[in-house]
Backbone:
């Protein structure tokens, strides 16, 4: 079985799904996505061979990759990936951290139903208590709802630079890939050393959704057996999405909260800007 030789390691709510879908269009690239992966906080795979079955449909593609957003959050994923594939290429998209936190909260509350605090600011304020609870009861609060921890970009990136070297880590800025997709994908393909003249058919995926009935959504998310049975019915997923989880526009963040978060996060963004040699402080100015 083929082993992966590149990894899309994150970030949550930063167009990772679109990146995967667009890369999959390239004839030299094969990519799969698994929510937990094999090198993160938890895994659904009982052995390496079970993990490698993810890539059983890969044929003669030059690059075989896996996407798992948990790999950027988990503090030991970089070292585990390095040990498993020492010369792997690492790819990720990072986005304005305030937008990321706000978007993750919305998804965790409305779609995943992991978050139980509906108000974004209240959920942010709960993080200190949640971190304390995790010390006493490990894994009580999943890492995705520790919002400020999620966007510690500098610390996260430094782990991958240390293990793989900057030359093997490609950091894409969300704003740039959104505004100039052809140019950025050309850079990505050059980084991956595949045909850089290929232009994907860019598509918007994983759009914001809002359940009409959160209780029903929670039932399907928490009852894996029910979800598995229902999911085998042809066309049922699309029907459910249209009926109970339609695409919808999210309300904006409270302006005062946004200003406060910009002030709070500015030192982190300045440090990140130095690390990337790219001024990203505009994230904290508009």
Residues:
């Amino acid at each position: 079985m083929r082993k992966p030789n590149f990894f899309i390691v994150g970030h949550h709510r930063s167009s990772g799904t679109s990146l995967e879908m667009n890369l999959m269009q390239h004839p030299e690239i094969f990519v799969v996505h698994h929510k937990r992966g094999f090198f993160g906080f938890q895994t659904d795979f009982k052995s390496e061979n079970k993990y490698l079955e993810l890539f059983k449909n890969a044929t003669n593609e030059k690059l075989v990759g896996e996407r798992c957003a948990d790999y950027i959050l988990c503090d030991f994923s970089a070292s585990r990936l390095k040990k498993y594939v020492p010369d792997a290429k690492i790819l990720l998209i990072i986005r304005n951290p305030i937008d990321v936190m706000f978007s993750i909260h919305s998804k965790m509350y409305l779609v995943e139903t992991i978050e139980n605090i509906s108000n974004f600011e209240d959920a942010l304020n709960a993080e200190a208590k949640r971190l304390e609870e995790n010390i006493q009861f490990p894994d009580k609060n999943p890492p995705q709802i520790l919002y400020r921890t999620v966007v510690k970009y500098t610390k996260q990136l430094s782990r991958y630079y240390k293990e793989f070297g900057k030359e093997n880590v490609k950091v894409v800025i969300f704003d740039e890939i959104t505004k100039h997709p052809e140019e950025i994908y050309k850079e990505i393909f050059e980084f991956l050393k595949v045909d850089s003249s290929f232009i994907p058919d860019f598509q918007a995926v994983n759009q914001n959704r809002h359940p009409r009935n959160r209780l029903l959504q929670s039932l399907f998310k928490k009852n894996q057996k029910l979800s598995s049975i229902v999911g085998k019915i042809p066309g049922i997923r699309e029907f459910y999405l249209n009926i109970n989880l339609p695409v919808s526009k999210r309300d904006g963040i409270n302006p005062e909260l946004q200003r406060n978060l910009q002030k709070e996060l500015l030192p982190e963004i300045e440090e990140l800007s130095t690390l990337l040699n790219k001024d990203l402080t505009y994230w904290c100015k508009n």
